[in-house]
């Protein structure tokens, strides 16, 4: 990982952070042509996975782990780019729901495809069984620590 820490002796944390850094750099590079930050792309993904009914700003803030004010700024940025829109919540006219526009859906799909290709390249050195084992182990670590 560094000149002082050969890979064969690096602690697990260092190895994991190294892979995360590689992934973040690649993700940022993939988003650059679209003029999006990873934060905006993540918000688009959350909104897309909320389905056609949309998502309230408070739910978006919770999913992104940001303040409601920050979520509003994210939605404003997506709205200014024509990628998301606000509409009255059909169950509560005082509230608004956020959904992706057709342009936003198309861009989200392009970005998702690019991410899948990049992930395939990142983990190209692992066979299918190794990828499954790695995914299982990382899920186990996450699940164990979510209960703390």
TrEMBL record:
Residues 9-143 form the HTH marR-type domain. SMART domains: HTH_MARR (SM00347). Pfam families: MarR_2 (PF12802). One of its GO terms (biological process) is response to stress. InterPro entries: HTH_MarR-typ (IPR000835), MarR/SlyA-like (IPR039422), WH-like_DNA-bd_sf (IPR036388), WH_DNA-bd_sf (IPR036390). Keywords: DNA-binding. It comes from the Bacteria. GO terms for molecular function: DNA binding; DNA-binding transcription factor activity. PANTHER family: HTH-TYPE TRANSCRIPTIONAL REPRESSOR YETL (PTHR33164:SF43), TRANSCRIPTIONAL REGULATOR, MARR FAMILY (PTHR33164). This is DNA-binding MarR family transcriptional regulator.
